[in-house]
From TrEMBL, chains A, B, C:
Protein name: DNA polymerase sliding clamp
Alphabetical list of NCBIfam families matching this protein: PRK01115.1-5
Subunit structure: Homotrimer. The subunits circularize to form a toroid; DNA passes through its center. Replication factor C (RFC) is required to load the toroid on the DNA.
Source taxonomy: Archaea, Methanobacteriati, Methanobacteriota, Stenosarchaea group, Methanomicrobia
Native organism: Methanosalsum zhilinae (strain DSM 4017 / NBRC 107636 / OCM 62 / WeN5)
InterPro entries to which the protein is assigned, alphabetical: DNA_clamp_sf (IPR046938), Pr_cel_nuc_antig (IPR000730), Pr_cel_nuc_antig_C (IPR022649), Pr_cel_nuc_antig_CS (IPR022659), Pr_cel_nuc_antig_N (IPR022648)
Length: 245, 245, 245
C-alpha cells in the first residue's frame, strides 16, 4: 500500500529531476520513502533520486514498485496552484494511482514496471576532485557555453575551477577561484561533456544553493544536490565525451 | 445611424465571446443596444449575445444590421491600452465602421450581412437541472480534462455535480457538492460534450463570477453568464456528443 | 588597441540599432569613440551610428576597424544581468575580441572588414519638413498600421502630421497636431514607406523620448535619436516606396 500527501511544487521539482533524462520511471516505494534509479535511452547519463518519508506531509507505505509516465504526471501537476498539496494513493487491485489536487481527482494507470528499462547499477567512482557551487551560477555558465558549442570542458588547474567551451571560431571560459566557490577539493580534473545533457541536468540543479560536482580526468562527472530542505537527494552521473583535438 | 462609445476591454471581451465560435458575425443594432446570434460552421454550438445601450458610455442608434470581421476588430483592439475607450461610428453611405481609439482612427469595411451565415433559431429547451458556479473554477476543471481526453461528461448524481473525462487509460473527475456551488437545482442530468468546444466557450465564461449551466440527459447544455456588470448577457448552447461505451 | 568598459544594456541597445538592418557590421574605432555606417542588403535603408568615448565607463583606443557578427554579440549579451558592465578588449595579434561579463570571458573571432559590405555614403538631404515626437507613440502608430497594410504614408497637411495606412478594404490614420508633437517644422511632405523596414527601425527608436523625423515629398525619411543620455546618436535613412494609386 501507498498513501502520501506532498507539497505540489516539491512533487513537480522531483518529477523534473527524472524527466530531463527519461519519460517513464520505476518508483521504488518503501516505508522509508521513494527512490528511483534511471538511465537515459542512450546510456550517457544516470540519475539516482530519493525522497525520504519525512519530506511528505503524510506518508504510509509498504514495499512496492510502480511504473509511471512522467509526462502524464507533469501534465496533471499543471492544475496545482501555488502552495497546494497533492494526495497520492495507490490502488493495488486496479494498478492505478489516484492523484488528488484540490477538488480534482485523477486516476492514472500505472505502467508495468517490467516494461520499463531496469534500474541501472550506479558505478562507485572515486573521483579525485570536487567543487561545490551555487546551482544558478552553474546554470548561467552552461547557458553561456550553449551559445557557441555543443560540448564543454570542466577542469581544475592551479586551484581554479574552469568551464570552457569552444565553437568553430569563438570561445567562452568561466574561471572560478576558491573564493568564488562554496568549497573546493583540487585534484587532477579535466573532462569534456555534452551540453545537450549537461544543459538538461542543470535545470533542476539550478534551484539548489549548493551543487556538488565530483570530477576527474576523462572520467564521468557526478553532480549531487539536496532537495526538499534535506528530505531527499538527486545524483546525476554523466559520461564524458572524448576530446578530439 | 449608429454612434457609440465603450470601454475598450468590455468591447474586447464581447468580441471574444463571439470569436470562439465564428470569424464573422451579423450585429443587430437598435436603439436598445446590440445583439448577435451565431452558430459555428459545424452546427455544434450557438451563441446568443446582447449588450444593452446602458453598457455604453454613449449610445445613439436606429435599427440596422452590420456584418463585421471579428479577427480584424480584435487586431485593432490590440492598440487600446488599459482604461482607454473606443468610439464607434457607422458610415452608412460607404458601409464602413469608423473606430477611434486615442489618436488612432480606423476605417473598417463592413461585410454584406447577406454573405454571413444567417442567424440561427435558438431552440427553447426545458432542461431539468441547473448549477451555478464560478467561471474560473469551471475553466480549471475543463483544462484538467483536456489533459487526458477530448470529451467530458457533465452530470448530477445524489446532489453532486460532476465533470468526468476519461482517456485511453486515465481518468479525471471533479465532484462539486451543493456547498461548493453557488446554486444547484438537481435533476436528471448526464451528457457528454466535446472539449474542443467547451474549452473555447469557457475562456470568456471564466471571467464571470457566476456561470449558469442548464443540463439534461443526452441533451444540449446551456451556459449563460452576465457581462458588463449586468449590461448584457452571453448564452451558449452546445450539442451533446453521443456516448459510445 | 582598443579597451573599453560599458553598461551592458547600453551595448545591447546599440547592437539592436544596427541589427535591425544588418547581421554584420564594420566598427570604426578611434580615440573619440565608435561609429558604424551600414546599409541593408536590399539597399533600402541605411544606419549611421556613433557612441562617443564619454558614453563608456572606460575607453582607450587607437584608430582601427573591426568586423563583428551582430547575432553573436547579441547571443553573448544574453548572459548579462541588469546593471552589469561589459569589458571589451581587442586582441590585435589574433584578431579576436575579448568580451568579459561578470566571471565570463568570451573570445569572439572578428570578421575581416573587407568581407563586409563597405560603408555606404550617407547622402546629404535637405528635407523640407520636420517633426519631433515620442518614440513610443511613433511605435504604436506603426504597429497599428502593420495590422492592415505593408506600407504607410507619412505627411504633413495644414500643420497636422499624419500617418496613414490602407489595406485592401480598411484604413488606419493617425493625426497629430502641433500640440501632440514635441516640435514641428511644417513643409511639403508626403512619402510612403515599407512597414517591413519602418517597423524594424522604430523598435530601437521607441526607447527614445524624442525622435526627430525629417521628411519631404516622395523623398527618403531621416529618423534620428539620441542614445546613451546624449553620448551617441542613431540616424536612419529609409528610401520611399512609390505610390501606385
Amino acid at each position: 500500500m501507498f498513501k502520501a500527501t506532498i507539497d505540489a511544487s516539491l512533487l513537480k521539482d522531483s518529477i523534473e529531476i527524472l524527466s530531463v533524462l527519461v519519460d517513464e520511471a520505476r518508483f521504488r516505494i518503501s516505508p522509508d520513502g521513494i527512490s528511483v534509479k534511471a538511465v537515459d535511452p542512450a546510456n550517457v547519463a544516470m540519475v539516482s533520486f530519493n525522497l525520504e518519508s519525512g519530506a511528505f506531509e503524510e506518508f504510509e507505505a509498504t514495499e512496492s514498485e510502480v511504473g509511471m509516465d512522467l509526462t502524464k504526471i507533469n501534465d496533471i501537476m499543471g492544475v496545482a496552484e501555488k502552495n497546494e498539496t497533492v494526495k497520492l494513493e495507490l490502488r493495488e487491485d486496479t494498478q492505478k494511482m489516484e492523484i488528488r489536487i484540490g477538488g480534482f481527482s485523477y486516476t492514472l494507470s500505472l505502467l508495468d514496471p517490467s516494461t520499463i528499462r531496469s534500474e541501472p547499477r550506479i558505478p562507485q567512482l572515486e573521483l579525485p576532485a570536487q567543487v561545490i557551487l551555487n546551482g544558478n551560477e552553474l546554470r548561467k555558465a552552461i547557458k553561456a557555453a550553449e551559445k557557441i558549442s555543443d560540448h564543454i570542458l570542466l577542469g581544475i588547474e592551479d586551484e581554479i575551477f574552469y568551464m570552457e567551451a569552444e565553437g568553430d571560431t569563438d570561445k567562452v571560459r568561466i574561471d572560478m577561484t576558491r573564493d568564488q566557490l562554496i568549497d573546493m577539493k583540487p585534484g587532477d580534473a579535466r573532462s569534456m561533456f555534452s551540453l545537450d545533457y549537461l544543459g538538461d541536468i542543470v535545470k533542476p540543479a539550478s534551484k539548489s544553493n549548493e551543487v556538488e560536482i565530483n570530477i576527474g580526468r576523462d572520467f564521468p562527472i557526478k553532480l549531487n544536490f539536496v532537495i526538499a530542505n534535506g528530505g531527499g537527494t538527486a545524483n546525476y552521473l554523466l559520461a564524458p565525451r572524448i576530446e578530439s583535438d
